[in-house]
Design goal:
With 280 residues, this protein is an alpha/beta fold. The chain has 3 domains: 3-89 and 174-182, Periplasmic binding protein-like II (D-Maltodextrin-Binding Protein, domain 2, 3-Layer(aba) Sandwich); 91-165, D-Maltodextrin-Binding Protein, domain 2, CATH 3.40.190; 194-278, Alpha-Beta Plaits (2-Layer Sandwich), CATH 3.30.70.260. It has 8 helices and 16 strands. It has helices spanning 14-26, 39-47, 67-75, 109-114, 116-122, 134-141, 208-218, 252-261; strands at residues 3-8, 31-36, 53-60, 64-65, 80-88, 91-95, 104-107, 127-130, 147-152, 162-165, 175-182, 194-201, 222-230, 238-245, 265-274, 276-278. The strands form 3 sheets. Strands 1, 2, 3, 4, 5, 11 and 16 form a 7-stranded mixed sheet that branches. Strands 8-7-9-6-10 form a 5-stranded mixed sheet. Strand 1, helix 1 and strand 2 (31-36) form a beta-alpha-beta unit. The longest helix is centred in the N-terminal third of the chain and has 13 residues, at 14-26.
Length: 280
């Protein structure tokens, strides 16, 4: 049976590049990449057993956490992180016309935000239009003289499309961390350099979050990321996502941390321990 891997489509997105890298890293036999429309669909395809694995972006070095992915993880607590990889992002402006003719720029909201400085300087009067993905933006500008898309450089290899400017991202070190999700703990590694958790507190009282974070420090662990998202139940109530570095890939530290956190939390989710790879 093929291993079905869901990712944010259509073909040609950064997510597809990440999915191909995950397939190679995991040495998956008979992989079948399934492009989906929207991150919600990517996660649901795996949560509902339509696909075996899902590839989603979790954070960008410029724009921070990807909220749709974070909300999807909290909503589907049966998903676990199998592996992570960091993908350098270098955006290109592509289109069918000339750069001085461009009056509309299309791309995924994250890509537009990551190139906002360049756009304001070089195309200040161009209307910025969000799309579901960078690849979808490219599809929508083919043949247009006044539209251009922000996408990967490989998009300029498509018929009717050429590169107008490269690179156009504001920060040279721009990169996105993608995670590979699966439905259960089966075949998850027993060791990993990072562990991801999410929790909500019993109440919004003074020092409640500090007590939770002190559990990490008490174990001598380093928290490499913290992100908050509204619980969507009431104003002022939040869910916290944290990543913790594991010295010597010691997953026993995660178990100790969970035991310390449990009495302080209303809900606590362990997404697992995993390794991270930087993709050149």
């Amino acid at each position: 049976m093929p291993t079905k891997v869901a990712y944010l489509g259509p073909e040609g997105t950064y997510a597809e590049k990440a999915a191909i890298a995950f397939v190679q890293l995991e040495k998956l036999s008979e992989p079948e990449l399934i492009p989906c429309l929207g991150l919600h669909s990517v996660i649901e395809h795996t949560a509902n057993k339509t696909c075996d694995l899902a590839v989603v972006p979790i954070e960008n070095s410029v724009e921070g956490g990807v909220t749709a992915s974070l909300d999807g993880l909290w909503r589907n607590k049966n998903l676990f992180i199998r592996r992570a990889l960091i993908l350098p992002i270098k955006h290109s402006l592509v289109g069918s016309g000339e750069i001085h003719e461009i009056s509309e720029i299309l791309s995924h909201p994250q890509a537009l935000a990551q190139c906002s400085g360049w756009l304001n300087h070089h195309l200040p009067n161009a209307l910025q239009l969000p799309t579901s993905s960078t690849a979808e933006a490219v599809r929508m500008v083919v043949g247009s003289r006044f539209r251009a898309a922000i996408a990967s450089r490989s998009s300029s290899n498509l018929d009717g499309i050429r590169e107008l400017a490269y690179p156009i991202n504001d920060i040279a070190g721009n990169c996105t961390r993608f995670i590979l999700l699966q439905r259960d703990r089966k075949n998850l590694g027993l060791k990993g350099s990072s562990s991801s958790l999410a929790f909500s507190l019993h109440d919004n009282s003074p020092g409640a979050l500090l007590k939770a974070l002190s559990c990490i420090a008490d174990l001598g662990l380093n928290m490499s990321r913290i992100e908050s998202r509204p619980s969507k139940r009431e104003l002022g109530e939040y869910v916290f996502f944290i990543d913790v570095e594991l010295p010597n890939e010691d997953c026993n530290s995660t178990e100790k941390l969970i035991n310390k956190l449990k009495p302080l939390c209303e809900h606590l989710v362990d997404f697992g321990s995993y390794t991270s790879t930087y993709l050149d």
